[in-house]
Specification:
- This protein is mostly helical.
- Helices cover 79% and strands 2% of the residues.
- A two-stranded antiparallel sheet has the order 1-2.
Length: 298
Amino acid sequence: MSLSVLQGAVEQGFIYSLVALGLFLSYRTLDIADLTTDGTFTLGAACSAVLTILGHPVLGLLLALLAGALAGGVTALLQTKLGVQPILAGIVTMTGLYTVNLAVMGGRSNLNMLREENVFTAAETLLGPTGKLILAGAFALGAGGLLFLFLRTQLGLSIRATGDNREMVASSSIDPALTTTVGLCAANAMVGLSGGLLVQYQKFSDVNLGTGMVVIGLASLIIGEVVTGRRSVARGIVAAVVGAVIYRIIIAAALVANVGAQNFKLVSAVIVAAAISYPTVAEKLRFARHRKEAEKNG
């Protein structure tokens, strides 16, 4: 693998790490399987692409962030006020976002941004060949740092408590509807920003860009947890960033190995399945080893 390919994989890993951070907040902290992510990622991408074409890439990222938060708020509303189950609420919002995303993109299924200036081209002009890497890393580290600080505030601690024991929180002075709404809005805001960054990075937006993003984000998070562990909030946040980078490096290695375009989806599926199933497989192997040692000593 060449240095340029490795750098590109790390850059994309930093961008996708925002999805993993969003899932860390919704899935690990709030204990909600939020399937809104697929639609939110595309929504952020669509908003960013349209404003970039209009000559406002920074505003495009801001709108991607706000639109993602709004999508998370819709999912939270369905859950907390209308009694829809979390998984179904995410599916409903994701389904509706497909039409919204098409509308944002002016009815077109894709947008070409090859000739448009964006935050990454500006970073390259200002910082040289490593400009993209520095900017992507700054977004990933900034989002991770802000999430860490947020989860240490009173509201952040309330969100963590809601994920740990919703019934106990409901019986106290904390409103679980509020903490759920804030958590899902913040999580999807990061996902939307990730989509907005990606389209400016690759200079292309597609209405199906977010397909499978939940699975990819969870795989990245689990890969990172295997490396760093998940015994604290700080380690969980680091795991999201590290796991996303490792995942993109694995994907880049598969591309370099010439697995073929027709086999790439299968390779990706195997990587995701291996990452998600690793904790269970490792636990079974550990149990089998201990049992064998006990039988040998007993």
